[in-house]
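**Folding the chain**
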Amino acid sequence: MTTTTTTTVTITPPLLQQQAPALQLSFDPRIQNLTKHGFLFGKKLAASMSPLLHDVVYQGLGLNWGQLRLDSDDMDLFLNLVQDPKFYGASVTMPNKVAIIPHLDYLTPECRDVGACNTLFLRDDPNTPGGRLLCGANTDVIGVRESFVQNVPNADVYENRPALVVGGGGAARSAVYALHKYLQATKIYLVNRDPSEVEAVMKECKERGYGDKLVYVESVEQAERLEGPGAIVACIPDFAPVMESEKTVRKIIEVMLGKDHKGAMLEMCYNPSPFTALGAIAEKEGWQVILGTEAMIWQGIEQDKYWTGLDASELPVAQVKEAIAARLAELSNA
C-alpha cells in the first residue's frame, strides 16, 4: 500500500484571529497551494482520523483539496473563515455540533431530528447572485446505518426486532435515529450508567417524533424478561466497570448478548483500539462484531458525497479502509 501524506495543518485560535479579518490563510504555504480547503472544527482534535480519511479521498480523485484542523470553539471566528471562496465544507465535532445549528440556513432531516450537526456543506443561494447557503447534515446517522447494511449479509438478523443502544451522548442519539428510521427496529432499549442522560435522550426523541419505541432498561431482572435484540450499538468508552452503575450496565449487556437470538453489534469505540472488552464478550457469545472504524469511514464517505457531489460508488472507499487500517496498526504498535 502507498503511504498517504496528508496536507493537514493544525491551526490555533490566536493566529487565526489575527488573520480572520482579511480571511488570509497565507501563514502556511501549503494552504496557498490547495485549490479548496475545509475544516475539522472542534476541540481535542489531535487523534482524529478525519483529515486522513478525506485526504485519501481527494488524492484518489485527483483533487488538490485538504481538510485543516481548527482546534477551537470560537463560532464567530469559524463563521468568518467559511466565507473564504476556497472553503468547501467542514466536519463539525464536539463541542460545536449543537452550537452551530442556529447559524445554518438549511438542515437535512437527520440533522434536524437528531438535533446535532457534524457536517457543514454549501449550496448556492437562489436569492443572492454568487451567494452561498450554509447547510447542516448529520452523517453520524448514516455511519451507523451503513455499518450494518455494508457488513451484515442478512438484514433479517436485525430488522423487525428490538435493538439496544448503550450510552447517552451524541453518538447514542444518532444510533437511536438510525435504528428507528433505517434499520426497522421494533423497540430500542437504552442502557446507560446515568439515568438523567437516558431521560434527556428519551425526552428529546419524543419531542422530535420518534421516542415512542424507546425503553429504558434499568436492571438485570428487567433485561432478563425482554425479547433479545438483533442490533446493538455500543457508544461508551472501553473502560472496565468500576462504579456499581457501570457494573449493572455491563451485566445488562451480558444478559442481552446471552439470549438465544444472535445479531450484530456495532462497537463505536475505536480509540485507542477498535478491539474492545465488549466486542470480545459479544464475539464469545456468537455475535457478529462491527468495528467502530466502519461507522467513522461511512460517515466520512457520506460527508464527501455532500462536498464533491459524487456517489459513494465513485469514491475510493477501499483505499480509505486500507489507510485507516494502516493508521490503527501504527497506533497499536506505538
Remarks:
- DSSP finds 13 helices and 13 strands in the chain.
